[in-house]
Structures are given as C-alpha cells and as structure tokens.
Amino acid sequence: MATDSTTVLHVEAPATGATIQEVPVADATEVRALAERARRAQVAWAAASFEERGEVFRRARRWLAGNGERMRRTICAETGKTDDDAQLELTVAMQSFGFWAKRAKGYLAEDRFRTFSPMVLGRRVAVRYEPFGLVGVIGPWNYPLVNAFGDCVPALMAGNAVILKPSEVTPLTALLTAEMLADCGLPPGVFTVANGARETGEAVVDVSDYVMFTGSTRTGQAVMERAARTVTPVSLELGGKDAMIVCADADIERAANAAAFSALCNSGQVCISIERIYVEAAVHDRFVARVAEIVRGLRQGAADGPGSVEVGAVTHPPQLEIIRRHVEDALAKGARALTGGGPRPGAGRFFEPTVLVDVDHSMACMTEETFGPTVPIMRVADVDEAIRLANDSPYGLQGSVFTRDRRKGEAIARRMQCGAVCVNDALVNYMVFDAPMGGWKTSGVGSRHGATGIRKYCRTQTILGSGPPLRRDLHHFPYAGWRSRMMAEVVRRIYGR
C-alpha cells in the first residue's frame, strides 16, 4: 500500500504477505492530464449510438468469459478471496455488461409529454438526458471488478468518459479491465485508470463532473466535502451494519445456511453482508447450534482452485485490527465465541470465522461496521424487539427477514429502515440490476442499478415546445385590471372546487 508521498504501489498478496507487483502512482498533475485527454475522447464517444457503445460491452462479456481464469487469478492474488468468491465477481460482472448494453437506451430515451399545467396549455415538453462528460469512480478493495469497475459500466454506456481510481490495495484488477476494454474496441482515452492513494483520489474528485464513490462512511464524507468545493454531484455507497431477523416460524435450516453464507462469504468483506442477527427466543438455541455447526465445518486458507476453501483472507491490513477489536470487546463484555475468536496463526492475514452469542448493543460488534468473518447472534423476545434493534443503527443499507409466512415477511420488511430487504434470502438483491440499490441514513446517497443507476450519470434538460400561435399571451405586459381579475376567477374556479 502507498502513502501520498510514494511513487509506486507495492501490491501485496493478503493470503501470503508476499509482494505481487509494483504499480506507478498517478499524481495530481498526471490526473489532470488524463482528464484533458478523456474530455477530448468523450465528445466522439457521446456521439456514438447506444448500439455502438453496447457492442463494446458485449465484446467485453465475451472477453471476460474467455479470460476468466486470468481475471480470477488476479482478483484472488490481490484480495486474498477464494476462487469461488472471485468467480462470483466474474459472473455478476458479465451479467451487468449485458444488462447495461441492453437497457441503457430505454432508460435514457427522451421523454415527451403534454404538460398538466393550464398556464402552458398546448405546449409540448421534452426531457432529455445528456452525459455529464467526465465521471470519476473511486472504487473499493473488496470487489475490485464488480463494485469498482462495475460502476464505470453505466457511466460509459451513458456516453461519459471515466477515470477509475481503484483502491490502492487492489489496483491490478482495474488495470486488467483497462486492457479488456482496449481489446474490445473502446476508443483511447474514454476509460483510464489512475492508481494511487488519497492524493490521487482527491485529484480525481477535483477534475470530475460527477463522482461515484464506494467505501467507508468516513471517507465518503471526505469525498462529499471535497466535491462540494466545485459543486460536483456525488453518489455514495457507504458503510453498512445489515441486520437479519429470524422469526419463530422460520425454516431454520434455510435461515442458518443463509446466515453462514451471507455473513462469511468474501470473509465478511461485503457491504451488504449480514453483520448482526436477531432471533426469536423460541428458536434461538436451535438456530445458533445449526449456524455454529456449519461454520465449524468451513475451510479457510489461500485459494487453490475452485471449491478448495470457503473463507479467504482479510484484504486490507487495518481491517484485521478492527475485526480483532470488535471480537475482543464483545468477549470482554460477556459474549461467547462458539467458533473462532481471533486471527489465524501463520502466514497471511486470516481471521477465524467467529460465531458470537450473548451479544447486545453495548458491544461494537453489534453497532459498528465490522467488515469481517463474524456472526453475532442475539436472542430477542419477539419480532417487535427485533425490528426495534435492527433500526437502532446509523446505517441502513440492507436487511433480511426469515419466516414461512411471506405476507408477514413483507410486512416486517416494510418496517425495517434500509434501502433493500430480502425475505427468506440475503445479498441476492445485488443481482437484480433492474431495481435501485442504495442506502438510507449514513449508508449512502443515491443508488446504483435500475433507471436511476444510469440516469444519475446524466444532466437533464427540459425543452418546452412552442404553444398556440398568439402574438401575446394573457399574462404578458401590459397588465390590465379586467384581465387580471378574469385570470384570478379562472384559477379560483379550477382549483377551488
């Protein structure tokens, strides 16, 4: 990892601690040069048709399918995740390429309609979407393909040029995506990668017309503050502390399997991973026993091919200390660890999959974002208590509820204060590209996916067509008392009924 004063990034393999590669850092001067080049290239790219832009991503989908092993190796090496977690990234990315290639045109089609207002009777209205020009995407380290590069796809399909500033921890995947797009016919300069740490990220914010950031709430606030200096609009997908509610009538086997997977996949380093679980007392012990049994059987280690391990490494060095602090805080305050409980000895950054019980909201593991392989489970008296505790958080990204009664599940979902809720499931809402995904509270501003996920990368322009061929409208100068009274009476009759 690099500080602002270094000229190269030393990319480290979290699973072994070895240095993989050194990558040059782009300073503020270089970022400005990239921006100038991008703006020149963007003009022709915006003039291209949606079909032409879409064809680039259809070719990219085929490229990724043909180069899947290379991409998986790159992702696994710099993140420390399992082969299966990396393959999930590839699968979701290929789906998104096809989705945006197909849907962008419809989402950004010009909207024409007749206005409701009688003041402009007879006039036609057109609303069109114009790309901002240059979009800066600042990506996270946990999903360098799906989240970092994934946010570039709708921005590019909207006709923008993009500068991607990946995490300084995981720059190699971004460089590979740049190679992919070049191979697939994207014009030079339309997409570029600016590697570096804080200084590089600040420079990207400064040169961009729109900024998309995914990462911690604290860093997101800094991005928003800097963007405010130039009144640059932003979209932020920030921290989460997603809650799962397990009702007494839930299918315990499904709930336990979903809990173990959605809390521990990618070593818990998922923005929408389950970070706290509330279980009705009647089924608490049975649920806990099954979750602990599943977690004890998980294999952890460096990826060695498909299906070799379930839980990988902790990607970002400081994250290991956050996870350790949360677990130690819980144990000191009376919680019990049924599995794991600490870092795994030996090479690499691994934290043991840890199931915590007897937890409460005095503990950091239930109130702060852990972003690691922990499963804190709390007993509650009833659903009302579970909902109250689930909503007792500054975060509001996603939630889950498990019950055999679908209507009950959807009713509970509507009471949870978060941007998305899965009933008898978790995480899978990310795969629903048709629907917006965004956070409430401090979990973010704006959303990705769906119509809003691409329209946010555009300015809107409203064009009001000419009305009846009159030389002067009733409201034009000069004013006349009789005309003003007549217009007031018309308004009273229309709106006073």
TrEMBL record:
The active site is at E237, C271. Gene3D superfamilies: Aldehyde Dehydrogenase, Chain A, domain 1, Aldehyde Dehydrogenase, Chain A, domain 2. InterPro entries: Ald_DH/histidinol_DH, Ald_DH_C, Ald_DH_CS_GLU, Ald_DH_N, Aldehyde_DH_dom, Aldehyde_DH_NAD(P). CDD domains: ALDH_DDALDH. Keywords: Oxidoreductase. Residues 4-463 form the Aldehyde dehydrogenase domain. GO terms for molecular function: oxidoreductase activity, acting on the aldehyde or oxo group of donors, NAD or NADP as acceptor. It holds the Pfam family Aldedh. GO terms for biological process: aldehyde metabolic process. Belongs to the aldehyde dehydrogenase family. This is Aldehyde dehydrogenase. It comes from Patulibacter medicamentivorans. The lineage of its organism: Bacteria, Bacillati, Actinomycetota, Thermoleophilia, Solirubrobacterales.
